[in-house]
């Protein structure tokens, strides 16, 4: 994440005053805003990252259904790992988006890549798929 902050800080002055901030499904820019929007994007990333870090540290406080016994250490470990994977996937999506935004803004590319949206969705769904697979596998394994 620090690398992204440094990349933006170094490149910020070279950005035009107005940059594309939204792309349609074909990768064409259809929304524009001031260049400081890049800082808002990084602020959002940092906020999400810190929030997920805090949640991941307190998985032992998650409520459980009445009648269920206390969670096992393996369940806590799985949840903590899920939040780590989720943070990594969000960081990866933001890094890809910012890295591809700069060429589009600087005029080196006329559009974002059309494959970007499905790739981003896939990256974001991987931690959830892993969690479901792990939980289902743990439930099939006798205690």
From TrEMBL:
Pfam family, one: DUF1648
Segments traversing the membrane: 36-55, 85-109, 115-136
Entries under InterPro entries matching the protein: DUF1648
Domain DUF1648: 3-45
UniProt keyword terms in alphabetical order: Membrane, Transmembrane, Transmembrane helix
Keyword Membrane attributed: yes
Top-rank taxon, per record: Bacteria
Protein name in UniProt: DUF1648 domain-containing protein
Native source species: Flaviaesturariibacter amylovorans
């Amino acid at each position: 994440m620090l690398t992204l902050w440094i990349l933006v800080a170094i490149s910020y002055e070279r950005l035009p005053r107005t940059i594309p901030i939204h792309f349609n499904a074909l990768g064409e820019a259809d929304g524009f805003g001031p260049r400081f929007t890049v800082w808002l994007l990084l602020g959002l990333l940092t906020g999400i990252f810190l929030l997920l870090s805090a949640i991941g540290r307190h998985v032992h406080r998650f409520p459980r259904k009445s009648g269920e016994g206390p969670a096992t250490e393996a369940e806590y470990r799985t949840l903590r790992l899920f939040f780590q994977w989720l943070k990594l996937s969000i960081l990866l999506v933001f890094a890809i988006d910012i890295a591809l935004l700069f060429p589009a803004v600087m005029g080196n590319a006329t559009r974002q890549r059309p494959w970007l949206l499905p790739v981003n969705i896939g990256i974001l769904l991987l931690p959830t798929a892993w969690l479901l697979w792990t939980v289902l596998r743990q439930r099939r394994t006798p205690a």
